[in-house]
Amino acid sequence: MKMIKNCLLLMVIVILGGISCSNSRVSRVVKVVKGPFYIKVHSVGQLKSAASTYIGCPPVRRMWNYTISFMAPEGKKVKPGTMILGFDTKELQEKMVLKSSELETAKKELEKIRLVEQEQKENFLLELEEARVKKETAIQMAVRPSQYVALIDVKKARMELELATLKEVLSQSRVENQIIGMKTRIQTQESKVKRLQKEVSEVAASIARLSVKAPKEGIIVYISNWRGEKKAVRDRCWVGENIMEMPELDRMQVKAVIPEPEAGKVTVSQPVEIRLDSNPDRVFKGKVKELGRIFRTKSHDQPSIVFDAVISIDDPDPELMLPGMAAGVDIIVSSKENVLQVPEAAIIYLEDGLFVWKKGFLGKKMVAVTTGPRSGGMVEILEGLIENDRIVILTAGE
């Protein structure tokens, strides 16, 4: 019964195949070829630069979170010194006004202290000079010949000399103390002024630091977070967080994810073919550069298990490639020479085996085949065909 059933099925396929070739289906004829056969692992990934300059929240004293106020357009080419990222400076501007006011007050206080201290010093110097004059007078009175002066006047003159001497010493001490005290009080206020000047300078530098300039010539690329989201103006960010990068476009590579079932086939240094989704007709060559150490979930929305890989690109095109662009990669895990092969689309799957339509002089007939591995749309033929056999592939009509 099974043999009769298969024969009937083959007859139906032959009849339908003939009808379809002339009606709802079109066909194309290909030759069985012999050549290199590559076993490939297909993966997807995104372009990234092997060397990038990262731009983010600049370090500002006692500032932990920031609000973005300006971002240079993504993909824009900029020159060194061009402003590419800015943050809200309102809080620092308010601090600048406060500290500047304190500085001006401290400067005025310093001038006042200098004037008052100098005036006090001059007063003490005047007192000292008066004490010295009185002392000189007292000396003259005290050294007069005793025969011309009464004894009581001599005693009085000596007492006045002694008092004048004490006043001179006291005035001299006041002047010296004033000089020392004046110097200390002025230095204290000068220190306050210098401290406030430093604080004002620091705030000004912090304000300037919040306008981030391009460190070199290059293009701007926004960095995506683990959710694939990019920062925008008015978003908040944290100190140390990177917001954009300036990649070196001549050192591009692919960050790919390998499906878990295929991960065991992939090793470092295996050759890779790379096609950009935006330009699939052009093939770039590369190699597996690095492999991740652990398996992980691809994303929150895609819970499949994957393995990370970094693919180097032998000859990247800076005019065509930008970080973040999607790419497909075919990792060549093994290869064989002189392999008989046909397009996988030529294989017909039936209950009792695999077949192809073989074209001959009198038409086409169905031939059983034994196949080997499949890869890249091709399948190895182990038995049933020889090189240059012509195979009919039925495709859907337009």
Topology:
Layout (H helix, E strand, L loop, with lengths): L1 H21 L2 E7 L1 E17 L2 E5 L8 E7 L5 E2 L4 E5 L2 H53 L8 H59 L1 E3 L4 E2 L1 E2 L13 E3 L3 E6 L4 E8 L11 E6 L2 E19 L7 E9 L12 E18 L4 E3 L2 E8 L2 E13 L2 E6 L6 E7 L2
Antiparallel strand pairs: 1-21, 2-12, 2-16, 3-11, 4-6, 4-10, 5-8, 6-7, 9-11, 12-15, 13-14, 13-16, 14-15, 16-20, 17-18, 18-19, 18-21, 19-20
Helix pairs in contact: 2-3
Please give the order of strands in the largest beta sheet: 2-12-15-14-13-16
Total count of strands: 21
**Cα radius of gyration in angstroms:** 47 Å
Order of helices and strands: HEEEEEEHHEEEEEEEEEEEEEEE
Instruction: Provide the residue-averaged pLDDT.
Output: 83
Q: Which properties best describe this structure?
A:
398 residues, alpha+beta, Elongation Factor Tu (Ef-tu), domain 3, OB fold (Dihydrolipoamide Acetyltransferase, E2P), four-stranded antiparallel beta sheet, 3 helices, 33% helix, disordered N terminus
